[in-house]
Specification:
Blueprint lengths: L7 H4 L1 H18 L2 H8 L1 E2 L2 E2 H16 L5 H6 L2 H30 L6 H15 L7 H7 L4 H27 L8 H29 L2 H9 L4 H16 L1 H6 L1 H28 L4 H12 L3 H12 L4 H26 L7
Antiparallel strand pairs: 1-2
Helix pairs in contact: 2-12, 4-10, 4-12, 6-7, 6-9, 6-14, 6-15, 7-16, 7-17, 8-9, 8-15, 9-10, 9-15, 14-15, 14-17, 15-17, 16-17
Protein name: ACR3 family arsenite efflux transporter
Subcellular location: Cell membrane
Membrane topology: Multi-pass membrane protein
Amino acid sequence: MGEESLGIFEKYLSLWVIICIVAGVALGHFIPAFPQFLNRLQYASVSLPVAVLIWLMIYPMMLKIDFSSILRATRNLKGLTVTCGTNWLIKPFTMYLIASLFFLGVFKQFIPPDLGREYLAGAVLLGAAPCTAMVFVWSSLTRGDPAYTLVQVAVNDIILLFAYAPIVAFLLGIGNISVPYDTLILSVVLFVVIPLTGGYLTRRRLLRTRGEEYFRGFLRKFENITVIGLLLTLIIIFSFQGAVIIDNPLHIGLIAVPLIIQTFLIFTIAYLWARAWRLRHDVAAPAAMIGASNFFELAVAVAISLFGLESGAALATVVGVLVEVPVMLTLVRIANATRGYFTE
């Protein structure tokens, strides 16, 4: 994607992200009634305002899906192998090793052992939950195949239902892991089922009644919706975390280090694996993105239910939210800059 082909939002996306992060933190700090009000608008630990914005981000991508291509996408087992192998056989375990190294070793003079173990628990909860919603945004920004991205997300959601609790229990040695399945199921419905259904029905109706040319014009109306939705989501998320950021600057920085290293490592493993198998770039980029990003709604909900709202585990999952968007935007730029190394 050349610089000249980008719109004003995409071209200066990093600048808009920084502005929205600062605005969100300031809003939460100086007008705490705003996030308090929004915090009441949630169900099963999922913020409904954020859900609506994420839906607006995903819906335009669902409109682009030629639904007959979904069946063809499932036949490309190499891409699914990269996604599932990275997410479930590598990612949770590298997260545990990297987080242990830093929280219980490198940073032990700054972090008490008990608190370090709580941070480790939060990191593992993040590492065992591959992304469900935002990966559609990252895929769109790298011009990923929307049908294939949908298949990747659907397969990971199915595995998540069965594998999340056992992996977390094994790595942390915690029995009776209580996964909030209402959060998990609601997120899948909100972030996959509803926009998928809406996109399918809209595309089918417009193509049948108005024709291909009208439909293409209709798609162009949504060109900036995804990025605008992302920026508004950032303002809301960071308004929730304004006090946390201001009150815990050192520990937030320390927690961010292994999370960022893990994100780049997982992206690199999946991306190079896809390159070695000669996958198309529009399959390779989403395959790497889904593993690098996290299902943070689930991780935060589990951390709060297991360890409490004020726990180190909950703080670690929140930091995962804070670092994810800037880091993922960096990976988007890397993926776009290396497109020439893959087949189209």
